[in-house]
Amino acid sequence: MMKSVTDAYTLSNGVKIPCIGFGTWQVENGQQAVSSVLSAIELGYRHIDTAQGYGNEESVGEAVKKSGVKREELFITSKLWNAEHGYERTLAAFEKTMRKLDMEYLDLFLIHWPNPIAFRDRWQETNAETWKAFEELYKAGRIRSIGLSNFRRHHIEALLKTAAVTPMVNQIRLCPGDTQDEVVDYSRSLNMLLEAYSPLGVGKIFGIPEMKELAAKYGKTIAQIAIRWSLQRGYLPLPKSTHTDRIKENMQVFDFELADADVELIADLKGAAGYSGDPDTVEF
Ligand code: A2P
């Protein structure tokens, strides 16, 4: 089991990925993102998760520079936005990300969504072309590992028909009561690491009575119970906060262990923090 925020999972290609990442969805570009990411790095996080769609890549890059931590000690993820699918657009959008981050390479690049509205009539072909660009960037050493986000089993199966490189990661919504078993099992059968976005259910877990009881039982906060649970399930949680005290709290999850029965209880809180939406019907 992991012992600190810098302990790493190993991806199928041997790349090490720190076991908790700092999430930046809904962290506003500019002062808020710079100060949140900088706090996270100063507190010890070495893994930052951003995306073209979050609009805050410049601030992530700026915070990394301000931190003074060497680039190679950090793990930086970004994601291709929906409008940019397709071979040529992916290559161009990747260069834009690198300019915004002002970095020489990326540790992980993900296809953010499998089925954007703009390509709905031909998402299979479009993902195949997008993935070809990902593979070229990977083989050229521009990206250390490549993966998917919000892909369900049928999306992955379609991609594998033409993929030469099996994705190393699938980043999906995983939180108490939303365990997406089908896609998790399938992703694992392909040696993909599951990254857990919204590990706190975007705040929805704080009202769940069972989570309150467990927090009292272990003498931890509800956030810590959820993040610890995520790690014990073998996921890589990506908690987000813009508050320094919470950013710190969310990494203090290595001095206790949930009993197996409690890990199961949390998994079984079906829908208590909502369920992930259907990626085939998103409006973006
Ligand atoms: P804030 O950014 O104001 O701290 P998720 O990671 O599942 O997306 O959840 C993020 C939400 O949970 C945000 O609203 C965030 O608010 C809140 N949050 C993050 N960490 C904590 C914490 N330790 N205690 C309470 N709320 C938290």
Q: Would you mind describing this structure in some detail?
A:
The chain contains ten helices and ten strands. It has 284 residues and is of the alpha/beta class. It has a single domain, classed as NADP-dependent oxidoreductase domain (TIM Barrel, Alpha-Beta Barrel), CATH 3.20.20.100. The strands form two sheets. Strands 3-4-5-6-7-8-9-10 form an eight-stranded parallel β-sheet. It has a two-stranded antiparallel sheet with strand order 1-2. The chain starts with 7 loop residues before the first strand and ends in a 17-residue tail after the last helix. The model has no long low-confidence stretch (mean pLDDT 98). The structure holds adenosine-2'-5'-diphosphate.
What structural class do helix, strand and pairing data support? alpha/beta
Q: Approximately how much beta-strand content do the residues carry? A: 5-15%
Number of domains: 1
CATH homologous superfamily (4th level) name? NADP-dependent oxidoreductase domain
The percentage helix is 25-40%
Distance between the termini: 38 Å
* CATH C-level class: Alpha Beta
Mean pLDDT: 98
- Describe the largest sheet: 8 strands, parallel
| Strand adjacency order, main sheet | 3-4-5-6-7-8-9-10
For the CA atoms, what is the radius of gyration?
Answer: 18 Å
Order of helices and strands: EEEHEHEHEHEHEHEHHEHH
